[in-house]
Amino acid sequence: QVQLVESGGGLVQPGGSLRLSCAASGFTFSSYAMSWYRQAPRKERELVAHITSGGSMTSYADSVKGRFTISRDNVKNTVYLQMSSLKPEDTAVYYCKASRLVYWGQGTQVTVSS
User: Fold this and answer.
1) What parts of the chain have a pLDDT lower than 70?
2) What is the pLDDT of residue 70?
3) Is 62 left (phi over 0), alpha (psi -120 to 50) or beta?
4) DSSP H or E run through 68
5) Can you give the pLDDT at residue 49?
């Protein structure tokens, strides 16, 4: 069965950095584009970053452009989100998702606070 396991979240001060990981299994990872989403309290889930199946193309929400970097390792079946210059408004639960699949992981909490 499809599994997506996010990790790497935590509490970080404004201006700090975190690296999120999402380990995927149960499908042919290298054939699917992958995305990171986030959901803050009382807000809708939003797309943060997207990467094509081979990793050659990426795109970002305007709110994170220049601060976040999505990447993937098709040998390890893992997608990453490197987050830097974090702001309090980046506080949310972060999820990964494979394009065209309906499965979600449990998410990982990121809290940016002094």
Assistant:
1) none
2) 98
3) alpha
4) strand 68-73
5) 98
Tell me whether residue 30 is exposed, middle or buried, using C-beta atoms within 10 angstroms of its C-beta: 0 to 12, 13 to 18, 19 or more: middle
* pLDDT value of residue 94: 98
Q: Which two tokens stand for residue 72?
A: 């993937």
Amino acid (one-letter) located at 15: G
Q: Distance between CA atoms of 100 and 114, rounded to whole angstroms?
A: 38
Q: Which two tokens stand for residue 3?
A: 């599994």
Amino acid letter, residue 26: G
Residue 59 DSSP SS3: strand
* N-terminal to C-terminal alpha carbon distance within the chain: 40
CA separation for the pair 14, 1 (Å, rounded): 38
Q: Identity (one letter) of the amino acid at 79?
A: V
Single-letter residue type at 50? H
**Which three-class secondary structure state does DSSP give residue 96?**
strand
How does 91-105 read in b/e, with b if 16+ C-beta sit within 10 Å? Answer: bbbbbbbbeeeeeeb
